[in-house]
């Protein structure tokens, strides 16, 4: 017996009339994708998890590809909740994003909630051409209200023009390497998030590092990108500080 | 080659400038996250399994002969805080100066020329170990030990913590140092290196907060 394997694919390209077409838009099993109302030249897509999950043993994969001149916004209908399954195996959720020169992707899903007893490995790889633009938000909430979290490992890799600009992994929850909830890593915070913004103009004019709110910082990466890292007591306050940082970037 | 060289390199009095850095402990003390030996232990354990593991894998890879420029770029990608990138390069440059005087080698000279502002300290540490005739495991041990001994020594000064208690914290962590070294050496000596990317959000945030202070005891 194995878990559910599901893949969703989105491909966006310029439609030649100043807008964005979606020649590929499909999902299977519990992963559905829906086109929603466009905003100007930007196509909008909503990820809809038709079932709860991922559960132990599941393998989910989402691929989005944005061509030159296309603008794509991807959101999700609700938070993703990692739950324990009948299988003891861990679940995997892989996100693969590629953006071509002149393309722009706004990847803004709802948070991932790690429920007690779950075990999930999330990997997000964003591969950008040198002239591509990206806004990517990742939020992790450790446990539902008042609940102990499951085990969650999350790796985020950003490459621009073939060069790795960011490679980070955060492991937390029972069974994670020691100290994950201590004063060097999360210090008792139950929500952690990152906002990655890639703009070609950052190569010449990087953002200045600054503190945002109480537990967040905006920093220039070693490449045409900026990163906001934030921790917060809960998902609501995390979203507030990430929104504030994004608005700050203009 | 032998333990003699390892002791010279691992000695806290090796003139490489590490004593001026607290490894994030100064900010954590000021913020109230470290108030005594128990917090110090949790802090060091978290640092060991994140920044310590990554540094040890980089050092092991450099000691095994991987391309220093590629390792330096990998270190940049794993260090989003510009304050920490700057500190790592300053420490790398100071270590390079000490290493070239101690164990002269054409490899060290070449990396010093390629990185006039300093390469990331763990990369230089691995190259230094190599120049001293030491291996990847020795380099990884130096890196993991530094990742916890720096904060422990700093907290003795910052909180007037009993030095015996701080040393007991390090002794309790010793079995975990061995485990992290094993992981780091396996990752760093794989071909190509399969470098870990373990991160610690509060260390990254704290480094930026600390860098903005007008007055501080430690450089990072």
UniProtKB/TrEMBL annotation, chain A:
Q: Give the superkingdom in one word.
A: Bacteria
- Cite the Pfam families for this sequence: UreD (PF01774)
Work out whether the entry's keyword set contains Chaperone.
Answer: yes
In Gene Ontology terms, what is one molecular function of this protein?
Answer: nickel cation binding
> What keywords would UniProt list here?
Chaperone, Cytoplasm, Nickel insertion
Question: Any keyword Kinase?
Answer: no
| Assembly behavior | UreD, UreF and UreG form a complex that acts as a GTP-hydrolysis-dependent molecular chaperone, activating the urease apoprotein by helping to assemble the nickel containing metallocenter of UreC. The UreE protein probably delivers the nickel.
Describe its function.
Answer: Required for maturation of urease via the functional incorporation of the urease nickel metallocenter.
| Family the UniProt entry places it in | Belongs to the UreD family.
HAMAP family to which the protein is assigned, alphabetical = UreD (MF_01384)
Protein name (Swiss-Prot/TrEMBL)? Urease accessory protein UreD
Origin organism lineage: Bacteria, Bacillati, Actinomycetota, Actinomycetes, Kitasatosporales
From TrEMBL, chain B:
What does the UniProt function comment say about this protein? Required for maturation of urease via the functional incorporation of the urease nickel metallocenter.
Location(s), subcellular: Cytoplasm
User: Could you say which protein family the record assigns here?
Assistant: Belongs to the UreF family.
The main place the protein resides is cytoplasm
Q: What is this protein called?
A: Urease accessory protein UreF
Say yes or no: keyword Manganese present: no
Which organism's genome codes for this protein?
Streptomyces phaeofaciens
Q: Which Gene Ontology molecular-function terms are recorded?
A: nickel cation binding
| UniProt cross-references to PANTHER family, sorted A to Z | UREASE ACCESSORY PROTEIN F
One Gene Ontology CC term in the entry: cytoplasm
Q: Which keywords does this chain's UniProt record carry?
A: Chaperone, Cytoplasm, Nickel insertion
Instruction: State whether it acts alone or in a complex, and with which partners, per the record.
Output: UreD, UreF and UreG form a complex that acts as a GTP-hydrolysis-dependent molecular chaperone, activating the urease apoprotein by helping to assemble the nickel containing metallocenter of UreC. The UreE protein probably delivers the nickel.
Concerning Gene3D superfamilies, the annotation shows: Urease accessory protein UreF
Q: Does the keyword Chaperone apply?
A: yes
């Amino acid at each position: 017996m194995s878990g559910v394997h599901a893949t969703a694919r989105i491909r966006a390209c310029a439609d030649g009339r100043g807008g964005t077409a979606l020649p590929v838009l499909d999902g299977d099993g519990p992963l559905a994708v829906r086109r929603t109302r466009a905003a100007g030249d930007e196509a909008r897509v909503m990820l809809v998890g038709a079932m709860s999950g991922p559960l132990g043993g599941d393998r989910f994969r989402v691929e989005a590809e944005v061509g030159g001149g296309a603008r794509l916004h991807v959101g999700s209908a609700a938070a993703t909740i990692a739950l324990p399954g009948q299988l003891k195996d861990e679940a995997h959720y892989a996100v693969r994003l590629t953006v071509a020169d002149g393309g722009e992707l706004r990847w803004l899903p709802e948070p991932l909630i790690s429920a007690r007893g779950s075990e999930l490995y999330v990997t997000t790889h964003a591969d950008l051409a040198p002239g591509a633009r990206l806004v990517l938000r990742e939020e992790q909430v450790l446990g539902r209200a008042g609940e102990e979290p499951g085990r969650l490992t999350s790796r985020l890799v950003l490459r621009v023009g073939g060069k790795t600009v960011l490679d980070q992994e955060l492991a937390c929850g029972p069974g994670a390497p020691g100290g994950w909830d201590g004063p060097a890593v999360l210090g008792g915070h139950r929500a952690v998030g990152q906002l990655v913004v890639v703009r070609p103009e950052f190569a010449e004019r990087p953002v200045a590092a600054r503190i945002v709110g109480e537990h967040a910082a905006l920093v220039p990466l070693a490449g045409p990108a900026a990163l906001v890292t934030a921790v917060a007591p809960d998902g609501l306050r995390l979203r507030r500080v990430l929104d504030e940082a994004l608005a700050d970037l203009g | 080659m032998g333990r003699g060289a390892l002791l010279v390199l691992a000695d806290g009095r090796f003139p490489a400038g590490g004593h001026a850095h607290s490894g994030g402990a100064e900010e954590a003390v000021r913020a109230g996250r470290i108030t005594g030996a128990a917090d110090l232990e949790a802090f060091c354990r978290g640092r060991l399994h994140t920044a310590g593991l990554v540094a040890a894998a980089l050092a092991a890879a450099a000691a095994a002969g991987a391309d220093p420029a590629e390792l330096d770029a990998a270190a940049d990608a794993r260090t989003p805080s510009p304050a920490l990138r700057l500190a790592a390069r300053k420490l790398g440059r100071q270590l390079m100066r000490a290493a070239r005087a101690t164990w002269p080698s054409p490899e060290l000279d070449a990396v010093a020329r390629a990185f006039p502002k300093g390469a990331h300290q763990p990369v230089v540490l691995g190259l230094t170990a190599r120049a001293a005739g030491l291996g990847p495991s020795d380099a990884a041990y130096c890196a993991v030990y530094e990742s916890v001994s720096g904060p422990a020594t700093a907290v003795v000064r910052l909180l007037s913590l009993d030095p015996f208690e701080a040393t007991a914290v390090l002794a309790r962590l010793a079995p975990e140092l061995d485990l992290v070294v094993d992981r780091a050496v396996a990752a760093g000596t794989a071909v190509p290196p399969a470098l870990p990317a373990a991160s610690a959000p509060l260390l990254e945030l704290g480094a930026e907060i600390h860098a903005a202070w007008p007055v501080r005891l430690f450089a990072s």
